[in-house]
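Appendix B. Raw example, untouched.
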Amino acid sequence: MLTFLPITGFFHPKQGTNEQVKVLRLPSIGFKHPFDQIFTGTIGTWLIFLICNPHFIIFSVPPGEPGLCAYLVGKIFGKKIVADVRDEWEDAVLKRTKRVLTRRLYRLYRRLFNAIYRKSHFVITVTPSLVKKLKQKGVKEVFLLPNGADTKLFHPLSPKECSETRKNLGLRKEDFVFVYAGAVGWYYRLDVVIKALQILIRQHRLPNLKLLVIGGGDKVREYKELTRQLSMEEKVLFLDQRSRTEVAKILPCCNVGVIPFDNDPIWFSAYTTKIFEYSAAGLPTIASIIKNADLEKLILENKIGLAVEPLQTEQMAKAMLIIYNDKSTLKAMGTNARKLAVERFNREKIARKLADLLLTKP
């Protein structure tokens, strides 16, 4: 797998690896421009092929530039090429940018990568909607391999372990804790959750509610200021970035995970790793997501949580209240979530399925 480092980086075969996959991080010249990444990526990929001589190559998009380099060099060397499509990345950029050159470039990317997907050995992708859309674009060999969770790392903990973790975090036994783990900002609208929490505490007189925010990002300062303005500093706890091991110890000690997407249509065909890690930890999930999206279907069909419309504070508050008041449903959803993660979204099982495809596809 190929990715980019900043200008200070070098090749790091040992960084970000496991027993099956080496992650090679390519240095770029340092200009924040796609052509820089195409140029340096092509040279770096060429060198990797000459040194390692792989039997096949998997390129993952987004971003597109490393994938384009890998495809071109892979074709020159006559290797089997597998495309890993994570989301509708070209459309996401086109919807967010007003720069004429960038829009033209990503329209070109969209046409170019549709052709690349059709000519790849096969394509893997992460949600049912993306499978359908790729097939509509003429890609014949498409396989569903969703994101997953390390179910050995993320798992429910004993009451004693949870009690100790809560004590270390300054939480009481009677606190009912909602948790968000991930990047703080961009399309995750934590302000909706914070305001919903305030409604429940003030209007419904539920002072034992708390929200843990695990992670860093460009909106941390803004959301901290919001909690100050709402006098919610003692109810919303910002834990900043934590290691995966720490996150795996904190999640099972909470009651409900939250995924507050905005209303961008791009999320119709997206999952998020959060849903699998929450589920593996035995947590129900409340997600704000557009109607009939893959994530909504996953949650509702498997009875692992609730879904509400994006950016709707009142709806979020209502869902949080429902799940708080119904302890038996809360427990059942948590049990369903853990079972789903183990049976369908265990990362080891997904990795074995990919290995089988690579070894058996002629």
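End of appendix B.
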